[in-house]
Amino acid sequence: MQCPSCGSLPLEKVLDLSNSQTSFWHCPACGAYPVFPVPKHPASLYTKEYFEGALHSKSPQYAGYLSYDRHRDVMRKDFAKQFKPWIPASAGMTKKVLDIGCATGTALEAMRDLGVPEEKLYGIDVSAYAIDAARRHIPRAELRVEDATRTDLCGQYDFIALLDILEHVENPAALMAKAVAALAPEGKIMVSTPDPESFARLVAGARWSEFHAGEHICFVSASWFSWIAKLHKLRIISLNRHGKHVTLEHALTRLRAYIPFFPLAKIRCVLHLNMFDRLCIVLEKLPK
User: Fold this and answer.
1) Which of 35, 105, 123, 226 has the fewest Cβ atoms within 10 Å of its own Cβ atom?
2) pLDDT in tens, 22-61
3) What is the CATH classification number for the domain harbouring 84?
4) How many independent structural domains does the chain possess?
5) Do 7 and 21 contact (CB within 8 A), yes or no?
């Protein structure tokens, strides 16, 4: 088996994943953590039920927000806080931004709140449901149903977001290469993704809540971003492990990944949750 990111051999097996026929591997050359065998990953997975009902009744597990719609306000505020240092309001009128895997458009809404005109907001996602939902909130943005791994990204963007998307693709390096090619000189890319080298993953093992069979198929580490930065003449300007605001209902659901019998409660009060198992990286394209 070759590393899907850099093509290196051999890979190191880390562990077998529970309730599936897949294993979790590590590439010492680039720092990727692929899942093998690579499961089929149809775009049809991302229906309304994916975005509005992520708790699987037969095998309760954390699988993202229980409802993107119910969490929209807190998600938008969290995104705005993350984006603000890189999209200041004073520069918003000149920015052209792209969200790859934009889901229902909440991150693009946050960019609009920071001063980026809707006409300069671009988003793509494989989910027709998500794009339809996004159009209701940001109708003047340019939004397309598209698989970023199968098409070239047209245009030159000042800021590109890849939020919770790299882990969904077989070859995250190829997607990053497409993003870099579409980045304007001195433009910035922000990536958020689960951290396969986090303490939570090491302790939880195969019960780590980010192991979603058939959905999360390749993870990348902090060292992988150092490798990708060197490969594409990028500079890492920020690295942190941020949390997010969620409802207590959501937090309890995430605990079910580790303690299956933990009780659930539909409590909508909001709290800040940080398991320190998610990377948020900002990279800048170096001038020629």
Assistant:
1) 226
2) 999 999 999 999 999 987 777 778 888 888 865 444 444 4
3) 3.40.50.150
4) 1
5) no
